[in-house]
Amino acid sequence: MSTTSSAAAQIRSRVPRLAEAAVERARLTVVPARRVRAARVPFVTLVTVLLLGGVVGLLLFNTQMQQASFAATALEKQAGDLAARQQTLTMEIERLRDPQTIAQRATRLGMVVPAAPAFLDLDTGAVEGDPLPAGPEGRLPINPGPPALPAALNPAPEVVTVEAPPEGVLAEDRGNGGRNSGDTARGDGRGGDGGGRNAQESQQSQDSRQNQQNQQNQQQARR
Amino acid sequence: MRRTRPTRGRRGSLRGSPQARLRVGFVLIAMVLSVFGGRLVQLQGVDPGSYAAMAAAEGTTEVLLPARRGDILDRNGEPLANSVDGLMVVADPKLTADKAPEIATFLARRLDVDYARTLERLREPGSRFEYLARQVPSTLADDVVSEARERGYDGILTRRDPVREYPAGDVAANLVGALGTPDPEEGDQPLVGLELAFHHWLAGKDGSARYAVGGGNKLPLGDNVEVAPVDGKDLVTTLDRELQWYAQRVLRQTVQSSRAESGFAVVLDSRTGDILTLADHPTFDANAPELAKKEDRVSRALGDVYEPGSVEKVLTAAALIDAGKVTARTRITVPPLLQRQDSPIGDWFDHGEIKLTLAGVIAKSSNIGTVLAADNFEPGQLRDYLVDFGLGAKTGIGAPGESGGILPSGAMWTDQTEDRIAFGQALSVNAVQMAAAVNTIANGGVRVDPNLIKGTAELADGTEVGTDTATRRRVVSEDAARQTMKMMERVIDPDAGVAPGAAVPGYRVAGKTGTAQRAVDGGYHGFTVSFAGFAPADDPRFTVYVVVQDPGNGGGGGSVAGPAFSKIMGYALRRYGVPPTGTRPSRLPVEW
Question: Which residue windows does the record flag with biased composition (Low complexity) (chain A) (predicted)?
Answer without folding.
Answer: 200-223
